[in-house]
Write a structure and sequence with these properties.
- With about 180 residues, the protein is mainly alpha-helical.
- The protein has ten helices and two strands.
- It has helices at about 5-20, 25-35, 40-50, 60-75, 80-90, 100-105, 110-125, 135, 145-150, 155-165, and strands at about 60, 95.
- The two termini are about 35 Å apart.
Length: about 180
C-alpha cells in the first residue's frame, strides 16, 4: 500500500489532469500542468522554475518563459504568451523571479491551514524575533534521529540547516525562515 502523501499526490495529479480540459485560463492551465506532473508544493514549483531558467540567472526572461510554457501549457500564440508573462511579472521588471512565479501559481491557503502554520511557526520561534533559525530548532527538533546524523555524514547543525532549507526560498537559503 502507498503512503498517505504519495497517494494524495497521485490523486491530486489525476484530478489536475481531469480539470485541464475544463479550463481556458492560461495561469490555471499552467498550474494544473504542474500539478499533473507532480509539482504541487513549493519544492516542486521550485524545480519547475529551475528547469525553466535556462541561463541560471534566477529569473525568467520572456524567451525562456515562452519556451518552457509551451512544454507545460502546450502551444500558445505570442499574444497569449505576452499576456501570461505580464500576469507573472508582478513588478513590471521584464523578468519573473521565483517569488513572482510562486505567488502566481500557488493555490490560496484555507484559513484553517493558515492557522495551523501560524501555530507551528509560533512554536518554532523561540527567540521571539519572528525568524526561525538553527538556534530556535534546538530543543524542538531532534536531529539525532536523522539518518545522515546517525551515519556520521552530517552534524546536528547541518541537519537543522537542511530542515530550514525546505522552507526557504530556493535562491536565498540563508538559514532563516520568516
Amino acid at each position: 500500500q502507498m503512503p498517505g502523501t504519495a497517494r494524495h499526490d497521485r490523486e491530486m495529479a489525476i484530478q489536475a489532469k481531469r480539470n485541464l480540459s475544463k479550463t481556458t485560463d492560461l495561469v490555471e492551465k499552467l498550474h494544473l500542468q504542474c500539478l499533473a506532473r507532480g509539482s504541487a508544493g513549493i519544492k516542486g514549483l521550485g524545480r519547475v522554475f529551475r528547469i525553466m531558467d535556462d541561463d541560471n540567472s534566477r529569473t525568467l526572461h520572456f524567451k525562456e518563459f515562452v519556451k518552457r510554457l509551451n512544454d507545460y501549457a502546450k502551444m500558445i500564440d505570442k499574444e497569449e504568451a505576452h499576456e501570461i508573462f505580464q500576469i507573472f511579472d508582478k513588478d513590471g521588471s521584464g523578468t519573473i523571479d521565483f517569488d513572482e512565479f510562486l505567488v502566481t501559481l500557488r493555490l490560496p491557503m484555507s484559513n484553517a491551514r493558515k492557522e495551523i502554520i501560524m501555530q507551528v511557526f509560533r512554536k518554532l520561534v523561540k527567540t521571539g524575533d519572528g525568524v526561525i533559525t538553527i538556534e530556535d530548532l534546538r530543543g524542538v527538533y531532534n536531529a539525532k534521529h536523522h539518518p545522515k546524523y546517525q551515519n556520521g555524514d552530517w552534524t546536528e547543525d547541518q541537519v537543522f540547516r537542511a530542515f530550514l532549507d525546505n522552507f526557504d526560498s530556493p535562491y536565498d537559503k540563508d538559514g532563516k525562515v520568516s
